[in-house]
Amino acid sequence: MGCGGTYGRAVVATVTTILVAITSVPVTPTGSAEAVGPAPGRGTYGVTAAQGRSRAYGVTAAQGRSRAYGVTAAQGRSRAYGVTAAQGPSRSYGVTTAQGRSRAYGVTAAQSPSRSYGVTPAQSHSRSYPVSVELASLTPAVIRQGGDLRITGRVTNTSGRRLGPAHIGVRIGASGAIDTRGGLSAVARRAPLTRADGPEVPGRTARLAALPTGAERGFRLTVPVPDLELDDAGAYALTVDVVREGGPGAGTVLGLTRAHLSAYPDATRLEPLRTTVLWPVLDIPRMEALTLRTQDSVLPVFRDDELTAAFGPGGRLRRLVEMGKGQPVTWVLDPDLIVQARAMAAGYRVARTPGDSDPQEATEGEGGEAAADWLAALRRAVRGREVIALPYADPDLASLARGGGAPLASLLRRASHTGRSVVDRALGVRARTGVGWPAGGELDDGIARYAKELGLDTVLASGAGVASEGELVSEGATDDGAVSLEGGTTALRYDAAIAAQLFASHPAAGASGEPARLLLRQRLLAETLTAARELPYARRELVMVPPRRMPLAVARVLLTVVAEGRKAGWLEPAGFTAALRKPTAGRLRGFDGYPLARHASELPPARLAAVVRDRRRMRALAKVLSDARATAASVRAALARSVATAWRADPSGAASYQRGVSRYLTASIASVRLVPKSMVVVAGGSATIPVTVDNGLQQDLTGVELRVLSSRPERLNARDRAMPVRASRAVSRTVRIRVKAYANGPVRLTAQLYTTADGLPWGAPMTFTANVRSVPSGAVIFVLGGTALIVLAAAFRPRRAGRARRAGRR
User: Fold this and answer.
1) Which residue, 396, 398, 394, 438, is CA-closest to 416?
2) Span 40-63, mean pLDDT?
3) Which candidate, 220, 387, 441, 484, has a CA 20 to 30 Å from the CA of 231?
4) Looking at the predicted structure, is the pLDDT value of residue 274 above 70?
């Protein structure tokens, strides 16, 4: 009975394990240890059968003591490198059988405290491979015809133990060329080795000596292109793996990495994609509303001096200009960056801390020469090229449309008109305007309407959110091109999948960033080639949009991809104007068009309301200045910068910048004030009362007048209804108000400044007491007589009212 039960359980375990091995996607990484190197056949993906040369994907039968590479039978002491049964306290690298002491190097079971380096089922917590594999180079980037594929890289033992000898091999995806853009993503998401990775290319491996803990070694592989068996033009999944050699763990995959390999044989004739590449040269706003006036000039104040490094040799903005020169790209510029560069070249100051309201505390900036050189380099680079001038400071269209930015529309329109003039004059071009770029390319009805309100008739939009009528590629962004929407807006769709890769990649510029740059390059080549293969004979557009603040490493990869695709023949550079020709009728897709996840980075409505309030205060300030134009222009530019899209990446910086503008306006308004006083003495019937106006502004004060009101006009009254006030910059001016006194005693007076343009009060009123003394007797008698008349009038009024009521009753 016991034996029968044991036998029955063993049979159940074996059958279960066989079913798992057959139906599960993950399989044993390699065949037998003897198959390492020149394998007996490229068809071996899993476990070799007990006899003969065979193509095996499943389980090896076994009786007695056996060595199996698939699923081990239930009886006997065995060594298994495939799939293990579900129970048993085993140290496994795969899954062990139900009985006996065993080691497994394949797939770990759902139960048992095991250490897994292979492929784990969903129920267990998967661990990474003990060896990390990174690719440093892959040449050629595009497989053309014949030759060799050369791969270099490095492997690192990240486990806590020494690993024995191994080899490095290459696999090409079993399904051949990948037909869809989604298939490319599936390869990138794949974690453990599966059948889809295909078998190792036989005979094309590199030996790897034993690796101590933490050891790192470089490797080099050379594989003849015919051995890769690339059947046709297209993108293929490439896997480079490290497989143990010899010993009890032979055939175990210790580590792997994947990339995409693009093949384009010379005889291939696909219709090339007309490719528009945008080249943004943008940055975060640095210049504040604050200025420092001298006798000869007005010096702007910057919140920091980081543009000095960015404009200088090797800086990001300088290198972008140098890299983009002569390339088939469309330049995308923010006029505000040009304004800031010109301001630096002419002389500027740097605040001690961002948001300071005292320009005297600012120090001299050091980037004037770097800014001038950068402007000269940019002028040379864009000569004869297409240039897009975004709205001034690149406003956040989505935040403004959703957060009630309508009151700012006129300010932004005015700033954009000025910005285009600046770009044209500074660079000697005629830039294209009227182009908006919502954050993330997201577009809905509200954003489209707001863009139209700003005078933007073209909007860069992600192809995932806009569809054309009769779209060639269903729910795909490859068929980009221009789409006409209701309301007269044209949406130029850009490739969402490529944009996602560019936005998500942040590879380092040096040697440490080589693996990431290589993977990005190969992925973008695969994306564009697969896009061309979707409709191989159709004439279509492809628009490639990198991040606004494009990293140099991403820029270099983007240019390489365009050059390689162009040389091979599936990409054809095109300009921005060409991409907008003949737009098709279209619509926004059936969702809001703006993902909820992106709401978190929007500018808060409260901040937009603060910008609107600051605009009103700027208008009030302009009314009292002798040279209002320069100050108003400085503040308007700062208000536009307060709603820049660039602040999405720096919310704390956005809040700090807006507070700085508000503090500047508060300090400016408060610097024009009445100097407080408590009491004055008025001796005699006529006198003048001095009132001091303090002008703390950096320019002359005009456009205000002083009015003094009395609480007891029958005792003391001002003869001058309003006195104009004029004061030089940073000085105080005393205004004398003539008064007439009628009676001795204290009288409370209130002095208030008003703007002459509209008669609105300016600043806080100032109240003081006038003590009237030595008023002549005639004046006193006049006052007493007037008082008596008032009393008599009050006494006769009830009597007249009584007679009137009696007459009414008659």
Assistant:
1) 394
2) 33
3) 220
4) yes
Q: Which of 159, 174, 199 is nearest to 29 (CA)?
A: 199
Query: 507-523: per-residue pLDDT in tens?
Result: 887 888 999 999 999 99
What single-letter amino acid sits at 566?
A: R
Give the integer Cα–Cα distance in Å for 294 and 488: 49
The better pLDDT of the pair 694, 511 is held by: 694
Q: How far apart are CA 392 and CA 419, in angstroms?
A: 6
Return all residues near 501 (Cβ < 8 A) that are at least 6 apart. Answer: 520, 523, 524, 527
DSSP state of 596: G
Q: Which of 747, 732, 648, 670 is nearest to 695 (CA)?
A: 732
User: Among candidates 760, 181, 734, 238, which has minimal Cα distance to 480?
Assistant: 181
Rounded-to-integer distance, Cα 641 and Cα 637, Å: 6
315-349 pLDDT per residue, tens: 999 999 999 999 999 999 999 999 999 999 999 99
User: Do residues 536 and 233 lie in contact, with contact meaning Cβ atoms separated by under 8 Å?
Assistant: no
b/e map 122-159, b = 16+ CB within 10 Å: eebeeeebbbbbbbbebeebbbeeeeebebbbebbbeb
Q: Do the strands 330-333 and 387-389 form a parallel or antiparallel pair, or are they unpaired?
A: parallel
Classify burial at 733, counting beta carbons within 10 Å of its beta carbon; exposed 0-12, middle 13-18, buried 19 or more.
middle
The domain defined by 131-268 folds into: Immunoglobulin-like (2.60.40)
CATH fold, domain 675-773, is Immunoglobulin-like (2.60.40)
Contact 271, 532 (CB under 8 A): yes
Q: Of 539 and 262, which is predicted with more confidence?
A: 262
Helix axis angle for 181-189 and 496-504, nearest 10°, is 30
* 281-292 pLDDT per residue, tens: 999 999 999 998
Least confident of 24-33, 296-305, 487-496, 778-787: 24-33
Beta-sheet strands, E only, within 617-760 = 672-674, 679-683, 686-695, 701-710, 716-718, 723-727, 731-741, 745-755
Kindly indicate the confidence band of residue 357, based on its pLDDT and cuts at 50, 70 and 90: confident
pLDDT, tens digit (0-9, with 9 covering 90-100), for 619-635 = 999 999 988 888 899 99
- What's the topology of domain 274-590? TIM Barrel (3.20.20)
Q: Calculate the CA 420 to chain-centre distance.
A: 24
Element (H, E) at 776: none
For residue 430, CA distances in Å to 386, 426, 666 come to 9, 11, 39
pLDDT of res. 471: 61
The percentage of the chain sitting over the pLDDT mark of 70, rounded to a whole number, equals 78
How confident is the model at residue 739, as a pLDDT? 94
Please state, in angstroms and rounded to a whole number, the distance separating the CA atoms of residues 740 and 772: 10
What sign results for the dihedral spanned by CA atoms 661, 667, 668, 670? positive
The mean per-residue pLDDT over the stretch 755-766 comes to 93
So what's the pLDDT on residue 416? 87
CB 335 within 8 A of CB 389: yes
- DSSP assignment, residue 742? -
> Which CA distances in Å does 711 have to 718, 748, 768, 787?
11, 6, 11, 17
Q: Which of 715, 763, 804, 512 is nearest to 617 (CA)?
A: 763
Those residues with Cβ within 8 angstroms of residue 727's Cβ, 6 or more apart along the chain or in another chain: 693, 695, 700, 701, 733
Contact 200, 171 (CB under 8 A): yes
